[in-house]
Automatic annotation (TrEMBL):
Coiled-coil region(s): none
Source organism, top-level taxon: Bacteria
Cross-referenced Gene3D superfamilies: Divalent-metal-dependent TIM barrel enzymes (3.20.20.150)
Matches recorded under SUPFAM superfamilies: Xylose isomerase-like (SSF51658)
Name assigned to this protein: TIM barrel protein
Residues covered by the Xylose isomerase-like TIM barrel domain: 95-279
Amino acid sequence: MLNLHRRGFLAALAVSAVPSFARTLKTVGVQLYTLRTVLPQKPLETLKALEEIGFTEAEVIGGSLDAIWPSLMQTKLKPVSVHLDTALFTTNQDKLPAALDDAKKRGLKFAVCPYIAPKDRGGVDVIKKLGETLNKAGETCAKSGLSLCYHNHAFEFEPAAGGTLLDVLMQTTDPKYVSLELDIMWSKVGGHDPVEILKKYNKRIALMHLKNVAAGVGPQFNEKVAKEAFKEVGNGSIDIPAVLKAASEVGVKHYFVEQDQTPGNPLDSLKQSFEYLKKTNF
């Protein structure tokens, strides 16, 4: 009888010891931009390697889909989000419906406005105008069955109007049509703890880029950081467990590991990041 009790205790202990990673991050994705130097040459081999690492979802880049799609369909990676040309959301909205139709046919759920070039940035008035423009694009996305997300960099955290430019953008955009893809590294470079941003914008954050940054970088409001500043998820100055806990609480839907610059083969860095996440309690 004692052995039975002990066996039951050990079984219960084993269950409780299973990290909640399987629950919170059961669909860990990868942003394929990380692999831009190797993916075009060896698409199937590279995508299969991602599958073997353990990634289950992918965020793809518009303009290269035809080249990688046959290979992607030979893996178990599920493409759920696409970074499209920024102009489709701003100056060339007349071409947006066609891009969205293509994304919809491929089964994608999110269309992301990825980057505002320095020449198109500005103060509060410029950001308000951008927000109004994104509202129109977001409505077009919704009519096509996709959700529009805006991906931040560091410039959005520049102080403005008693807050930041990101505050202005989020206040100007309609939650029905525009959500946020939070890039936690760039928020840190901009001087803001990603946990703070998660708590502040809560349900408006649908997607997240998981990456890290070396200590001592920033605050600064541009992307002029050294290559060595980009770190694997578990290697930098961001408290990843705290970020994942907050993200889980606010209901972030999809997580994509990304590393803009890597010290060697990007697959090695992605594997290191994935293994770190797997070992955490999330």
